[in-house]
Amino acid sequence: MKSPKKIIILLATTFVSMLVLIAVYAFIFLAMEKKTEETSILAESSRKISGKESHVGSAALSLKTEAHNLEKLSTYFIKEQEIVSFTKDIEALGPQSGTVLKIESLDPGMTEKSVPFLDFRIKATGGFGDIMRLMTLLQNFPGNFEWRTLQLVRLEDGASVLWEANASLTALNFIKE
Predict the structure, then answer these.
(1) Which residue, of 14, 40, 74, is where some domain finishes?
(2) How many Å apart are CA 89 and CA 171, to the nearest integer?
(3) What is the CATH number of the domain that holds 149?
(4) How do residues 94-147 score in pLDDT, each as one tens digit?
(5) Is 95:160 a contact under the CB 8 Å cutoff?
(6) Residue 100 carries which DSSP code?
(7) Has this prediction a pTM greater than 0.70?
(8) Are residues 82 and 25 in the same domain?
């Protein structure tokens, strides 16, 4: 009878060992499943952060590469605080073209649709070629001018012939800040 008791004890021990192993396996499986879920959450947040960082990096790189173009574009607009430098730039076209140039009036205003503009009148005196050179310089000036009126008058002063140009222009690229 000793032999069946040993077998029963051996079977019971084996059964208990199997239950313990199954419990340990289940515990490890559940712990790993929890860790896997936590890891996937961390990986997803890491992907989101790296995606945001790449967008920010891309935007920063885009701004760096476009900074020159933005600076160039901003030169085409005349801001309210830059009116003095604008008038100096226009007056500098006189000596550049060989004419005597004078800005007679400078009037900022608004259209009916609240669009700002800058009206100005200039008077230039010089030779016909010099006056035409001034008109070309004004047409090529960085900005958007609408020519309201242009009057050319021939002035005869004895032996010399001078021309006088009176122009009324509107700067459409004026920004009121």
Answers:
(1) 74
(2) 14
(3) 3.30.70.60
(4) 999 999 999 999 888 888 888 888 899 999 999 999 999 999 999 888 878 889
(5) no
(6) E
(7) no
(8) no
